[in-house]
Amino acid sequence: MSRRAKREAKVKSKIISKLVIVAIFFGLVFWVLRITPNYVNTDIADKTNLVINNNNVTSSLKKDVVIENGIIYISQDDIENFFDPYVYYDEKYNQIVTTSNKQIASIVIGENSMTRNGSRVNISGTVIERNDTLYLPFSSLKDVYNVEINYIESTDTITVDSKDRKYVLADSKSDNSVKAYPTSFSRKVDTINANETVTVVQNENNENQVVDGWVEIRTDTGKLGYIKEDELVNSLTVREAMESEKQIDGTVSMAWDYYYELSSAPDRTGTSIKGVNVVSPTFFTLVDEGRGQVSDNVGDSGRAYIEWTHSNGYKIWPSISNGSYIETTSEIMNDYNLRQELIQNIVSLVMTYDLDGINIDFEYMHDEDKDLFSRFIIELKPRLSEIGAVLSVDVTAPDGSDEWSLCYDRHVIGDIADYIVFMAYDQYGESSQEAGTTAGYNWVKANIEKFLGQEGVEANKIILGMPFYTRVWQERNGELVDNPAVDMKNIDAIVPEDAKRTWDDNLKQYYVEYERDGVTNRIWIEDEQSIEAKLSLIQEYGLAGAAYWEKDREPDSIWNLISEKLGI
User: Fold this and answer.
1) Segment 123-153, tens digit of pLDDT
2) With 0-12 CB in 10 A as exposed, 13-18 as middle and 19+ as buried, what is 110?
3) CATH H-level, domain 252-566: superfamily
4) pLDDT below 70 — which residues of the chain?
């Protein structure tokens, strides 16, 4: 080999060596960067750790957990964040009110007792104030929130497990180091011995939380981490997840069955209603100035009606109306004790008459009472859930007058109640100074989208209410003189045979206009075609179902249509 060739070979060798060194360097950098995060210590050692359903939430706490005299206190802000988004300070009675799925509890600040679902019980601790922050005696609320609470003094850790979630234990097959992350290149968070029992973390599908062959566990010190999945033996499911069951399997189809409060319930013995699985008779009304008392309009005829519903396999959710008593309603909504009086009366009525649910039909309320009406629904729901009764709440379209439309917080009602019933009528009603349809398809559709959008209501909570009536708009010399309601079943009888019916594809209705005795009559017709169009919106938007105001205003043929469209 020539001297030049040797020199070139030497240079090439040096270049290759440098490249190898650079590659090794970047490889080491990559390896360090890869494993370093797994060694970062994220433990919070200077405060009490809170582990909720195998999730350490300590870093998300707004206030530190307080432990005094063996009692665990959690701030109202953190209760709101983790356990009850609607926890409430009632200034009038100087108390905290908190709710869960089946419980409502109130604790007067400074008192060692609470009222839970209407019963007074003594508790350890009370609501305390520290640095202008209210703290609840969490230890005493485990039954309210349906949780198990364990304080581990050695690690200053509180574990909270919801009793409605799946809970699994298993034994460690051998001595193990519990890793912070599902990899061998991770720091140790705890050590467990052979045959030591650990809690196995469950994912959202109620299966063991497994990542790349590593399973997440919680040790008896409250530490969360991973060991190899094959290191777990003797798995034991202590409890399965509690699945909530709906009364109605599938689409809701509810017929309101109105009768005047001084008359008797209709006798429907020997009949049935095709396409319906819920009926809502007008059994109950608030007593004006009654401070939470309810007028009971059941009687012998109502008891027979209840027997008829159950014999036909229907659920019965009677309506309770506020009778449009705006001041009576306001008085109740503005007083916690009066709300509880009304709630207790409703619960008693449900139990007395073996009802399946309640339909709250409070209309015409002060808009400034909106949040307090929501409080009423928040406080009513757990009491009904405790006895297995469904709560549905009627509301109007989102945009409108203060006392008709703006008096509802549809988002909160839709979040809390089993169902929110959109009374999709009257687009143009009795008090309107302008003639128009009772429920045009485009208006109904637009408002459904408002419920789903600006109001933030889940589609599977919305029942679409539709009218079995319309109005005859009567004008003389271009001036509106009257607008009487007419039942759907009677429309053909009042419209002259020679009157021309014009289809409006936006409204999905026929429009008819005719003269009689010097009066121009204008009708936007509700019939099978208009109802069919509105029923189609239920499937289009995935709504919970439909409701109809009111039974006996419809032609018999409408039930075949409803049965076919809703599959009931």
Assistant:
1) 999 999 999 999 999 999 999 999 999 999 9
2) exposed
3) Glycosidases (3.20.20.80)
4) 1-43
Specify whether the backbone of 81 is left (phi greater than 0), alpha (psi in -120 to 50) or beta: alpha
> Which CATH architecture is the domain 49-150 placed in?
2-Layer Sandwich (3.30)
What is the radius of gyration, based on Cα positions, of the chain?
32
Residue 72 to residue 93: CA distance in whole angstroms: 24
* SS3 per-residue string spanning 167-198: EEEEEECCCEEEECCCCCCCCEEEEECCCCEE
Q: Is 340 helix (H, G, I), strand (E, B) or coil?
A: helix
Q: Are 188 and 82 in contact, with CB atoms under 8 Å apart?
A: no
State the Cα–Cα distance between residues 223 and 306, nearest whole angstrom: 55
- Would you list the domain boundaries of the chain? 49-150, 164-239, 252-566
Q: How far is residue 78's CA from residue 85's CA, in Å, rounded to a whole number?
A: 9
Residue 32 confidence (pLDDT): 43
Among residues 446, 445, 437, the alpha carbon closest in space to that of 539 is found at 445
**Residue 295: its H or E element:** strand 294-296
Cβ neighbours for 70, distance < 8 A, ≥ 6 positions apart? 124, 139
CA distances from 324 to 286, 365, 368 (A): 9, 7, 16
**Residue 319 β-bridge partners:** 359
Contact 439, 425 (CB under 8 A): yes
Q: How far apart are CA 305 and CA 268, in angstroms?
A: 7
Name the helix (H) or strand (E) containing 216.
strand 214-218
- Tell me what pLDDT residue 243 has: 85
Tokens of 208: 């063991």
pTM of the model: 0.92
Q: With helix as H, strand as E and coil as C, how does 108-154 read?
A: ECCCCEEEECCEEEECCCCCEEECCEEEEEHHHHHHHHCEEEEEECC
Q: Which two tokens stand for residue 417?
A: 């109640």
Check residue 454 and give left, alpha or beta (phi > 0: left; psi -120 to 50: alpha).
alpha
Domain at 164-239, CATH from 2.30.30.40, 1.20.120.1780, 1.10.645.10, 4.10.400.10: 2.30.30.40
First to last CA, the chain: 95
Cis preceding linkage at 426, omega within 30: yes
Structure tokens at 562: 């409803």
Long-range contacts of 243-251 (CB under 8 A, 24+ apart): 246/418, 247/315, 247/356, 247/357, 247/390, 248/277, 248/278, 248/315, 248/545, 250/567, 250/568, 251/538, 251/544, 251/545, 251/546, 251/566, 251/567, 251/568
Residue with tokens 């687009």: 427
